[in-house]
Amino acid sequence: MNTLYLDCFIISILGLILSTLVILKSQLRKAKLANVIYDWHLFFGMDLWINMAGTLVTVGIALMLLGPFLKQFPKYADATLFIMILFAALGYIGSDVASRFFSVVNGRINAAIDYKTSAADQAAGTADAPTPATKPQNP
């Protein structure tokens, strides 16, 4: 029982890291497909720290409630695997919910893509023509 709190904390941090890496990979891929220079400062700015702080607060609240929950429902005290799975999901989902803060970075990438697309359409004389919806090619 003593190590359960530490195990839950560690696994929730791993969920947070996994979620952050998934977001980073998605933004890097999107920027690369659009030939937009991705500035690492955009990702590792204040938004990331707010995201992590929000997840850590969520995990802290869950850890504080874990003891009273297990006292109230002692039959779940032996279900450590289930509890750890919940904390891993909490770390991932807590980060995913807080990742709405990353919409600023995503908006900047989209603005760069729109700017480049508009400039290319004007140069080609197709500013009023719709862009065909084709599957993006992996670089």
Question: Which features would summarize this protein structure in a list?
Answer:
5 helices; 139 residues; mainly alpha
Structure characterization notes:
16% of the residues are buried. The chain is 75% helix and 0% strand. It has one domain. With 139 residues, the chain is mainly α. The protein contains 5 helices and no strands.
The computed structural class is mainly alpha
Low-confidence stretches: none
Largest sheet: none
Shape: elongated
Order of SSEs: HHHHH
- Could you report the average pLDDT, rounded to the nearest whole number? 78
Radius of gyration equals: 21 Å
- N-C termini distance: 49 Å
Q: What's the helix count?
A: 5
Number of domains: 1
Tell me the fraction of residues in β-strands, as a range. Answer: under 5%
Q: Could you tell me the number of beta strands? A: 0
